[in-house]
Amino acid sequence: MENASVSELAPAVLASFRHSFRSYKSLADRALAQLADAEWLFVPAPESNSAAVIVQHMIGNLRSRFTDFLSSDGEKPDRQRDREFEEPAAAAAIPSLKQEWEAAWHILFNLLDELQPTDLLRTVTIRQEPHSVLSALQRQVAHYAYHAGQLVQLAKIIRAGEFVSLSIPRGQSEAFNRQLAATKP
């Protein structure tokens, strides 16, 4: 990409955002898939959040930030952020939460498919504060990476020795690197 022109940069940035958001959703999905519905409600310590609460918060954030992204404030008047941090009453709520999770991510992925390279320098607002589209997307990538990491940590705590690694398992880096090198021409 060293010799790429400026006109090639914006599409590459959008592609990078698409890749990052999909990667963090996949990481969160693979961690959550290791939990039974009742385990979504596990709170590891006082003032900590369960997986269900983190998911509720991300759903609220995704909907608020990316619905009418280019034309309305990213903090919608009907969002009730504090309620996102209330524990669901029972595991019976989890299947519905899973559906809302998918629908909320769909809002973001549709937006990313519609954004044009020229949109990156447009101004959007979040809580009445102006941001470029570029900075607003970067802000959300960091936010979702943070929460995906929390979900992975919760799954590791809950599953303990049964947790299936989502990357290179401990003690297997050298073997992974050898295997990777063997596949290179």
Automatic annotation (TrEMBL):
<dbReference type="InterPro" id="IPR034660">
    <property type="entry name" value="DinB/YfiT-like"/>
</dbReference>
<dbReference type="InterPro" id="IPR011466">
    <property type="entry name" value="DUF1572"/>
</dbReference>
<dbReference type="Pfam" id="PF07609">
    <property type="entry name" value="DUF1572"/>
</dbReference>
<protein>
    <submittedName>
        <fullName>DUF1572 domain-containing protein</fullName>
    </submittedName>
</protein>
